[in-house]
Design goal:
With 160 residues, the protein is mainly alpha-helical. Helix content is 76%, strand content 0%. The chain contains six helices and no strands.
Length: 160
């Protein structure tokens, strides 16, 4: 696991080349364990200072700061993993666009409903349809992402 962590940071800005399944999934495990450990530490710190104050305001943001610090290296790792399975960075772009489109559509439906803009049954059914499309886009892109990351390696001769 230590090797996966170090390799992730050594190749943080390398969008070319390949990343094996084990390289990708070991990093995912490292990332998950870091977030879980940080969350427990933050919760303990929060309880020890009585649930308020400066440290909780700063340290409570650690998971978000961690994700922001690792987003570019994670995209690089994902693209290298796609290269290894015989796909290119365009596949990642399509999955990302699908996910963002679904999120934006879902947010716009939620805002429309919450601001009382829906007055008739027809509007409600249209919004429910848009919500269903948003759900399909976001969950479909995430499932497809997991499938692509789990694909076996293809020979180096395979062009992406």
């Amino acid at each position: 696991m230590r090797e996966a962590f170090l390799r992730f940071w050594k190749k943080a800005l390398d969008f070319r080349g390949r990343a094996s399944r084990s390289e990708f999934w070991w990093w995912m495990l490292c990332d998950l364990l870091i977030i879980i450990a940080a969350s427990f530490a933050i919760a303990a710190l929060y309880r020890s200072i009585g649930g308020s104050g400066f440290p909780s305001a700063i340290f409570g943001k650690f998971p978000l700061m961690w994700k922001m610090a690792t987003i570019i290296p994670f995209i690089a790792l994902s693209i290298r993993r796609l290269h290894d399975s015989g796909h290119g960075g365009k596949t990642f772009a399509v999955l990302l666009i699908m996910s963002f489109a679904g999120t934006l559509l879902g947010d716009s439906v939620g805002l429309t409903i919450s601001h009382g803009a829906i007055h008739t049954i027809d509007d409600t059914s249209a919004s429910l349809g848009m919500a269903a499309i948003a759900l399909l886009l976001t969950s479909g892109s995430k499932i497809a992402y997991i499938v692509f990351m789990a694909l076996p390696s293809k020979s180096p001769a395979t062009r992406h």
